[in-house]
Amino acid sequence: MLVIAVTGGIGSGKSTVAELFKEKGIPIIDTDQISRELVQPGSPLLQQIISEFGQEYLDAKGHLKRKDLGRLIFANTSARDKLENLLHPAIHSEVVKRLKKISSPYCLILIPLLARSKQLYPYDRILVVDTPPDLQIQRTTTRDHLDPDYVRQIIATQPSRDDLLELADDVLDNSGDHNILKAAVDRIHQQYLELAKQRS
């Protein structure tokens, strides 16, 4: 099976792209979703995180205050490293487990922080969803109701657009409308089916 790692900055449209592939029957492994599942109330990983960062990051129902913790780690490199050292090995292990259960010509793994990850994820190609920074800011502020300056800070902590494009085997330009993106996904879907066929 051909494994495609999908990455891109905040607000680039990775989830939208994933949905378009999903409509074609392509399995998606979303590392952000896995991270949410791994820190459900009472989970061992959540207990480790709270032990490291403090009870103030738990709400009254025992859920992780993700936005509060997000603000801390974007402002504090040391805290970000500590959190990533807790989360990433657990996410990596779950990704490997899920890959073993998939039967498909190819699949996608959404890995937003691939460029910075210390984990060696199993993949054959990297697909970068590329969006100009101004559009990233506009989409993220609309979607998450965040201050534009805060979104700029988040973008500044992420790998640069140039760094991401340098990593890419394939690029999906998501600066246009939905129909343009859909057509681009159609084309690359056919390319991946052909590559998967050549491998089998």
What do you see in this structure?
The chain is α/β, with parallel strands linked by helices. 56% of the residues lie in helices and 12% in strands. It has a 5-stranded parallel sheet with strand order 2-3-1-4-5, sandwiched between helices. Helix 3 packs antiparallel against helix 5 and helix 4 crosses helix 5. It is globular and about 50 Å long.
Looking at this protein, list some descriptive labels:
5-stranded parallel β-sheet
How does the SSE layout of this entry go?
Elements: E1 2-7, H1 14-22, E2 28-30, H2 31-38, H3 44-53, H4 66-75, H5 77-100, E3 106-110, E4 125-130, H6 133-144, H7 148-157, H8 161-167, E5 170-173, H9 178-199
Parallel strand pairs: 1-3, 1-4, 2-3, 4-5
Helix pairs in contact: 2-5, 3-5, 4-5, 6-7
Q: In brief, what are we looking at here?
A:
Helices cover 56% and strands 12% of the residues. The protein contains nine helices and five strands; from the N terminus they run βαβααααββαααβα. Strands 2-3-1-4-5 form a five-stranded parallel β-sheet, sandwiched between helices.
Structural class: alpha/beta
Low-confidence stretches at least 5 residues in length (pLDDT < 50)? Answer: none
The share of residues in extended strands comes to 5-15%
Quote the distance from N terminus to C terminus. 8 Å
What is the helix fraction of residues, given as a range? 55-70%
The count of β-strands is 5
The ordered H/E elements are EHEHHHHEEHHHEH
Rounded mean pLDDT is 92
Number of helices: 9
Question: Biggest sheet: strands side by side, in what order?
Answer: 2-3-1-4-5
Biggest beta sheet summary? 5 strands, parallel
Cα gyration radius (Å): 17 Å
Give the overall form: globular
